[in-house]
Amino acid sequence: MSSKSKTDEKTVIEDFKQAINISAKELDSWLKTKESQSVGQKSDGEESIGHESGRHIIEILHKKADYTEDDLSQMKRVLSYIHRHSAQRPSGDIEHTRWRYSLMNWGHDPLKED
Predict the structure, then answer these.
(1) How many domains does the chain fold into?
(2) Which of 40, 58, 73, 94 could be bridged to 50 by S-S, CB 3.0 to 4.6 A?
(3) Cβ(102)–Cβ(50) below 8 Å
(4) Using CA atoms, how far apart are residues 10 and 2, in angstroms rounded to an integer?
(5) pTM
(6) How many CA atoms are closer than 13 Å to the CA of 10, on its beta-carbon side?
(7) What is residue 56's predicted lDDT score, i.e. its pLDDT?
């Protein structure tokens, strides 16, 4: 792997750790709630994309290092989603919004920013 690739990988990992502001334990508890399961794109009774992503985030958070290519790819997807979705913040109180619930499925609680 080139030096640039190692630098890019390190940046992705650091950015991921900054963007995820929910612990693995908190995320695991959140994913079990009906609010968590009420949001996201899903096909006929299947788990939503965000919910599935949340489970993968928990796995990544339990690792100290030794991230796989799949983990790094997931980190990039998570960063992209959080960035895009955060830009669509609705006005007013967000505490009980589908927008917030969706971000929380991806490991980011926008209320922790305020």
Answers:
(1) 1
(2) 40
(3) yes
(4) 12
(5) 0.89
(6) 7
(7) 96
